[in-house]
Specification:
By secondary structure, the protein is of the alpha+beta class. It has one domain: Alpha-Beta Complex (Cyclic Phosphodiesterase, Chain: A). It is built from four helices and nine strands; from the N terminus they run βαβαβββααββββ. Helix 2 runs antiparallel to helix 3. The longest helix has 14 residues. It is globular. The protein starts with 7 loop residues before the first strand and ends with a strand. 33% of the residues are buried.
Length: 207
């Protein structure tokens, strides 16, 4: 892996749920907050579902925005279906969504339109959100810039992350409240070294 490139930014292309689901995600996340967790969703950390994420030279960000728009032109609204919860090996607790054909097509379309603009194609910088970094993740990162691309694409909304040694011995009791929603917004955000979004570059509406 290369050294962290200068004048570059991680870009997170993500789905934003409707307000009702977003509020439920925040309340659920805050109910999990404790000395064992690193963060909870709030006004600055908000519910989002990553479709694709990679590092780009700052001068290429507008090309990314333009090509996301092109990728979304044939896309019409569809249902993002809640499929339970998942605790990753990296200690992230997530709301899971079904890998529907519509979500897969959107994911692949974004990859096809924007991944060619990524920085260091074939030899990406190892981002903080790559960990734990398996051989398949390495291959995805080399080929697309995103470690959880293609077969590893896992539609989800992150609720929190547990501290090292803070993962509960039993899976936390979580409500079976349905968190499904209709796709209506796809946004392009700048993200920090751990993949957390912090600055919106553009918002697209899907109907």
């Amino acid at each position: 892996m290369n050294q962290k490139p200068k004048k570059s930014t991680i870009i997170n292309i993500c789905i934003i749920p409707n307000e009702a689901v977003a509020v439920r995600c925040v309340l659920l996340s805050q109910s999990l907050a404790s000395g064992s967790t690193l963060f909870a969703l709030d006004g600055s950390r908000f519910a989002h579902m990553t479709v694709f994420m990679a590092r780009f030279a700052n001068e290429s960000i507008q090309k990314v925005v333009d090509n996301v728009e092109a990728a979304l032109k044939p896309v019409s609204t569809f249902r993002c279906q809640h499929a339970g919860y998942f605790l990753t090996e990296g200690r992230y607790l997530e709301i899971s969504y079904r890998r529907s054909p519509e979500l897969i097509r959107l994911h692949e379309s974004i990859i096809n339109h924007v991944s060619r603009f990524r920085i260091n194609p074939g030899d990406p910088y190892e981002e903080g959100y790559f960990t734990p970094y398996t051989e398949e993740q390495q291959q995805n990162a080399r080929e697309t810039g995103y470690d959880l691309a293609r077969n590893l694409f896992r539609p989800h909304i992150t609720l929190t992350r547990y501290r090292e040694g803070g993962v509960p011995s039993a899976f936390p009791a979580l409500p079976e409240t349905m968190l499904s929603f209709e796709l209506s917004r796809v946004c392009v955000y700048k993200a920090d070294d751990n993949g957390a979004v912090y600055e919106r570059m553009h918002e697209f509406h899907v109907r």
